[in-house]
Amino acid sequence: MRMLIIEDDREAARYLIKALKEAGHVADHAADGDEGWFMAEPGGYDVLVVDRMLPRRDGLSIVTALRDKGDDTPVLILSALGQVDDRVKGLRAGGDDYLTKPYAFTELLARVEALGRRRRSIEVETRLTVGDLVLDRLSHSVERAGGEIVLQPREFRLLEYLMKNAGQVVTRTMLLENVWDYHFDPQTNVIDVHMSRLRAKIDKGFDRPLLHTIRGAGYMVRDFGTKA
Amino acid sequence: MTSFGRVFRTTAFKLSLIYLAVFTAFSGFLIAYLAFNTGEILSRTLRANIDEEVRLLREQYTIGGVQRLVRVVEARSRRPGAGVYLVTDFNGNPLAGNIAEIPPHILNDTEGRLRPASYERLEATDPDRRHRALVRVFALDGGHRVVVGRDVGEREEFRGLIRDALRAALIVMIGLGLVTWWFVNRRVLKRIDQVSLTSERIMAGDLSQRLSITGSGDEFDRLGGSLNAMLGRIDELMRGLKEVSDNIAHDLKTPLTRLRNRVELTLNGEPSEERYREALEATIVESDGLIQTFNALLLIARVEAGSNGSAMAEIDVGEVVGEAVELYEPVAEDEGVTLTAEIAAPAMARASRELVAQVVTNLIDNALKYGRPPIEADGLARAPVVKVGVRRDGADVLIEVADNGAGVPEADRERVLHRFVRLEASRNAPGSGLGLALVAAVARLHGGAVELADAGPGLIVRLRWPA
Lengths: 228, 467
Fold this sequence. Notes:
The complex is a heterodimer of chains A (228) and B (467).
Chain A (H helix, E strand, L loop, with lengths): L1 E5 L3 H13 L3 E5 L2 H8 L6 E5 L7 H10 L6 E5 L4 H9 L4 E4 L4 H14 L8 E4 L2 E4 L4 E4 L2 E3 L3 H12 L5 E2 H9 L9 H14 L7 E4 L3 E4 L7
Parallel strand pairs in A: 1-2, 1-3, 3-4, 4-5
Antiparallel strand pairs in A: 6-7, 7-8, 8-9, 10-12, 11-12
Helix pairs in contact in A: 6-7
Chain B lengths: L2 H7 L1 H68 L5 E5 L5 E4 L1 E3 L2 H5 L5 E8 L9 E9 L5 E7 L1 H51 L15 H50 L4 H33 L7 E4 H18 L3 E6 L4 E4 L1 H18 L14 E9 L2 E8 L31 H11 L3 E6 L4 E8 L1
Parallel strand pairs in B: 8-10
Antiparallel strand pairs in B: 1-2, 1-6, 3-4, 4-5, 5-6, 7-9, 10-11, 11-13, 12-13
Helix pairs in contact in B: 2-4, 5-6, 6-9, 7-8, 8-9
């Protein structure tokens, strides 16, 4: 994926770009608001990572200007401001996701990858399929290898979100935000327990696991194919 | 500045001045209006009287000629309070009437117009005095001329009276205005001076100073009351801030020191990738914990400042609590805790969904972590139970989270609501000591309160606020 990082902290940007390259992406850097607008305006990036407070030009105004000219490149807004209304402002300005500093790199990576993928995706698809697992969003039913799996409403939404982002890492925070609409981290790792329940329901009794735990990052639904 | 100069700058003075001007203008207008209208009426009556008399005299003349006219005029002239009369021959020599002298141009104007004239009265007590009258002159066939008029001295007197009344009213008004202003001013200035003095003391650093309240319930008392409430709040916030900085100094320095020491120790030891990796992983865990503590502290501070930014809305508290319980159900089950929810739905209230959700997860988290029943003498423990309830209690919405653990001693129940306060019994369990502080802050933000009580056995936390 081609990404543009608009971030005035050069040290943080350098580290971020290096880490993104290691993860297999191409990342450019703009060090202030004007430069960021200059580079983002022609388009051509899959994801923009925009710091909210930038010299010369405010990050949110770049996003708004892009949206005004019909550019829908996904934008992740980075900010030291983590209040509910800050987040709402960021999303209203046209941002697609909002991450508060300080953040873990794995969290940022999972989010930009989800954003980049979502573009050519599946918001409207009514059936999500991973391997032999099929989730029908209209009838709210889940089948694996033809057999029905009964899920609680919340488990259904959990699986739906994971399958929408199939093949990508989904962090615990992303799950809390998107499935529970909680923008805080409960102290106990409640998500892990929910995931192990879900796993018991969809993977138990099958020799090919579809729900994977990615150590230090989160979870992923993916069909890795038959074991060799 | 002199106290006199200060008096002139007061609002009371300016207001008094404005009122004075307005009332003067108003009474001036009123009196002028009255004077004008009354004058008009008097003039009209005069005119009508004169016209009537002219008609009557002409009639007499027609009936009995000059002799009769002279007789009638003589009779009328002698009546007390009589009008002004004069009959002359064609040379202008007086034949009858009560006028001694009148300017000849008036006498020659026989057009019949009503006009003002000055004249001298016969048999007057003060012969030098000239009187003013409105007169009409008309000529008779034989060259005789008749003057009929009314003395307007009465009207002039009335005008003078009005002028005097205006003057007196003005003087009284200014006098009264000055007196009122003086009294108001003295009182107001005195109270304002008190407020200034107290404010200066507060600015000098003594936040315990309060404005005095007289108990009269006037606007100064109300102002004082509000200002005192504001001062109380500021005082509270300042104290909170101080407490926070003290706590931060202590409770954040400890993990930072630990962090630094671990890195130093690792660097000093023998270089081995495995040791480095282990130390770095531990460092990440430790810094994540620090970030979380920071976030929690910031959140509490913002909630306490009342500017958390979370939108307050009419929400179903039962639903929010139900979701939080549902989130924790699997965890509780894994840990062998019976987690039950008793939600009297719908419990609508004005609240921040985000904060209520966070607070309830904190409470459930606490109950699961610290609410474990202790091991009894027989070596067994009660089965752990956590009960969550939501209901309306009068005008309040009430959230209860109860466990059946060891509870919190009564002496500590108030204390644990403060930041970083952790009880000895749970000091080694994970946690930042900020959960209940957030609960207390959120309760205050919603205008409610949090209360810890004995669940017999166990701890029950009651969070309530007006719906």
